[in-house]
Amino acid sequence: MNYGQPGGLANIDRLRSDGALLQEPDTGAIVREAVRFLWRSKWKILVGMLFCATVAVLIIVSTKPTYTATTTVLFTPDQRNTDDIDDVIQAS
Questions:
Q1: Cβ neighbours around 15 below 10 Å, total
Q2: pLDDT tens digit sequence for 71-83
Q3: How confident is the model at residue 66, as a pLDDT?
Q4: Which residues have C-beta within 8 Å of that of residue 10, sequence separation ≥ 6?
Q5: Minimal CA–CA distance to 34: which of 9, 6, 5, 4?
Q6: d(Cα 23, Cα 84) in Å, to the nearest integer?
Q7: N or C: which end of the chain has fewer CB within 10 A?
Q8: pLDDT for residue 17 is more than 70
Q9: How far apart are the C-alpha atoms of 36 and 29, rounded to whole Å?
Q10: Between β-strands 21-25 and 11-15, what pairing exists: parallel, antiparallel or unpaired?
């Protein structure tokens, strides 16, 4: 970015504590320059995004899914079945 140079960003004048003049870039000009940069680079950005998406899809498709799970179920025949909520509350 060309701060304070002809053809560069718009500037706002400000004095330092020693009286020297500082040039601060205009925020709106910085945003406009960033948008211009992104617009000029749109094809590079698009190609990069497509490349990354293609690599991601190839990795997802080529990876074999590996699902592993183990479960233990415990049945105790000595427990009684309860249908009444009071029995459940008393048991706990």
A1: 9
A2: 988 777 776 665 6
A3: 85
A4: 25, 26, 28, 29
A5: 9
A6: 82
A7: C
A8: no
A9: 10
A10: antiparallel
Tell me the CA end-to-end span of the chain in Å, nearest whole number: 72
pLDDT in tens, 27-82: 788 888 889 999 999 999 999 999 999 999 999 999 988 888 889 887 777 766 65
Q: Is the dihedral of CA 77, 83, 89, 90 positive or negative?
A: negative
Query: What is the C-alpha to C-alpha distance for residues 5 and 83, in angstroms, rounded to an integer?
Result: 86
DSSP string, the chain: --TTSTTS--EEEEE-TTSPEEEEE-HHHHHHHHHHHHHHTHHHHHHHHHHHHHHHHHHHHHSPP-----------TTSPP--SHHHHHHH-
Could you give the CA distance from residue 30 to residue 11 in angstroms, rounded to a whole number?
Answer: 10
Residue type, 80: R
